[in-house]
Amino acid sequence: MTHTPPVAAIKPYELTMHGHTRVDNYFWLREKSNPEVIAYLEAENAYTQAGMAHTAELQQTLYQEMVARIQETDSSAPVAHGGYFYYTRTEAGQQYPIHCRKQGSMDAPEEILLDENALAQGTDYFKVGVFVPSPDHALLAYSTDSSGGERYTIFVKNLATGELLPDQIPGTSYWVTWGNDNRTLFYTTQDTAWRDYKLFRYVLGSDPAQAEELFHEPDELYRLAVSKTKDNAYIVMAATSMETSEMWVLDAHNPGGALRLLQARQKGLRYWVEHRNGRFLIRTNADNSPNYKIVTAPVDAPTQENWQELIPHNPDKLLEGMEVFADYLAVYGRANALPTLDVYRFVGNALSAPHAVEFPEAVYATRGAENPEFASRTFRFIYTSMTTSDTTVDYDMAQHTWHVVKQESVLGGYDPTDYETACVWATAEDGAQIPISLLYKKGMTRNGRNPLLLYGYGSYGASMAPGFDQKRLSLVDRGFIWAIAHIRGGQEMGRHWYEQGKFLHKKNTFTDFIACAEHLIEQRFTSRDRLAIMGRSAGGLLIGAVITMRPDLFHAAIAGVPFVDVVTTILDESLPLSVGEWEEWGNPNEEEFYHYMLSYSPYDNTTPQAYPHLLITAGLNDPRVAYWEPAKWTARLRQVNTSGNHLYLKTMMGAGHFSSSGRYDYLKDIAFEYAFLLDVMGEG
User: Fold this and answer.
1) Whole-model pTM?
2) Which of 79, 108, 136, 269 is 20 to 30 Å from 577 at the Cα level?
3) Whole-angstrom Cα distance, residue 327 to residue 346?
4) 1 pLDDT exceeds 50?
């Protein structure tokens, strides 16, 4: 083990575009099969382990705290589906869940459908992709990945005998659904850039190599997905880019039939489809409805000229999704940075006036749960806040009442009344008001001396939920304030919030985050020497950008699998983060986008200055943000950083984008990150 920082060899490589030449000294780190590359990553890992060795006891303490808070032997809330109750359970000491069901009632004998622990034996990484019972509940289609590379193999299990059918389909993605004949599977496969580009139909008992290709999407902007309407009437294939969507349907009762187009793609037109009572229900941005509206259309004439408005566009509320039932419609929304749930009753094919589900706290989050039963009058969702653990709620849509089915246990003496949450607002450079969610111990004093961790993401329209995470308590109990910056690039304030944080407005994401940091300092929640920041993936880009723009503002940073080599990556059309991403970041083949993206790309703007303490993570098998982006960035930072602060790169040599797959191993990853923060903040 060494305390001497690794030095990556400098091998200049010129990249020229639009008459502009960049020299990349570390382009060679892309050569995954090159022993010199692996040696460099292993040297960085050794350096990180040596530098963090003195925190080993702290890491173990943090890990034990997190384990002590979880109910190690536990069961999920059972989901009623087709006369069965499906659930997962965990056992103390076991890394992975066990999938089970009971027939008729929860008092019936347990059937173990899938024990992930048994399947994961002998692997460093294991992940179940899909878990889909057949319509008659006699068979189970599931898929697994043992590398972290997100290429899955589909298996089919006879649930009566426990035997695997000989049908195995490698190279699949996250999308699998059944035809109503209980024999036909529909699934997607990916191209070399991990883009879902083909839809296949496969009949059990035939040769998987001869599966029928139903659809091939040649446009590299688009990805395919396949699902089924909740009433089991239609298989739905979605072809979507970030700005446009197109839906095709196939009669699920005639799985050998043909796909039928609903509405041909039009640039900028987005729509998604469900079905009820002989009509399609469509959530769409059509007719200048950026926050979306819901329309209906007859099955035999579903094109846009026949769309009839059911729920109008609301400029003050984003319509995020819908859950269709036989007699009810539940609509997920978002207004003023908080989620909403509105419930309607169908009156024929029209709707009653809505009623809003009421929530007990001022700062909270919700998300949909499994609702497979079309005829139910009960709508299940998850309620949570930064002090309230995930709570599974069955909401009676007729009586307007909710019943708590299960609340996640938080052991170790946790008392939610010991903590407080708040929402404060920072003013951005252009005057926009940016919400910040806060969690802290009750009695916190705003004296400017509190250690504070500011988290952000700000891309793809993903809204950061102020929900519960027991792991945070290990920091908050040590005096940290946990803050979430709801910056532009997400959709917390509506679709416009996203559009103001993408393309040629992307820098708003970074300046918003800086404004949040400055506000928290000005309001004496913390100070520069007590402020740490964190983000992952596109959030890692955020971290890289802001410490490049304002390295003086932050004491420490964690950049998880960071997307930091923006222009080079998006110009490489062979990579997953390339063509399909042009509708998020812009197309650098166009000169205006090239120069704009280059102006904020962290790797391209890493220059001699004093950077904060920095922990960077990577996954060798990561298909989303290739390991070489964090590796190259680390190498360049080592070359130019003038601060003398810690700079660590931790590459997981047997995993991908999402760190360790086992629940205990994952907690060790988090304990490592928290130990880094506590150490450099002087709180260890």
Assistant:
1) 0.96
2) 269
3) 5
4) no
